[in-house]
Structures are given as C-alpha cells and as structure tokens.
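Internal tracking record. Fields below are filled automatically when a chain is submitted to the structure queue. Please do not edit lines marked as system-generated. If the sequence contains nonstandard residues, flag them in the REMARKS field before resubmitting.
Queue: standard
Priority: normal
Entity type: single polypeptide chain
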Amino acid sequence: MDTIAVVVVGDSMWPTLRDGDTFQAVPYSNQAINVGDVVVFNDPTHTSRMCVKRVVYVKSEGLFVEGDNPDPTASTDSHNYGLVSYDLLIGMKR
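SYSTEM-GENERATED OUTPUT FOLLOWS
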C-alpha cells in the first residue's frame, strides 16, 4: 500500500510532532479508527488545508480530535469545529 508523505506545519502536535517534521501516513480506506490514533484530514472549516490531530474519542458520526500540545491555545481542533466527519479523513500515522 502506498503511503502519503505529511509535513507538519505548526506546534499543535508538539511534543509528539514538531514544526517541520515529516512522517508517512497510510491512506484511510474505512479501516478502524481508535482512540490515540494520529489522523490526517481535511480541515472542516478550510477543506484545502490538511490537519494532523490525535483521536480523543470515536462516535458513529465522527471523530473528536485534539492536538497534543498542552497549551489549549496552541491547537485548533474539535473544541473549535466539532466532530470530524469520516469523509474528511485522508490517512493515519503509521
């Protein structure tokens, strides 16, 4: 299976991922998503932008995601835009 190269921009996933880090993501194709997974998805408010966040809880209608940065102002996430729809998922960090 081909992977997707992802470049991190910003500090929302610090200290796990830092600005400028790169990683490989497995394309999402209906595989199970679990709490703790790091997912790549199209930003629900700006679909031309990709986001990288950690899954905090899973519901049938979407995923609640947050950045790892302990500073609550360092991440725009589900606290701001709500659940992330499965159709916005691009991939999962390996």
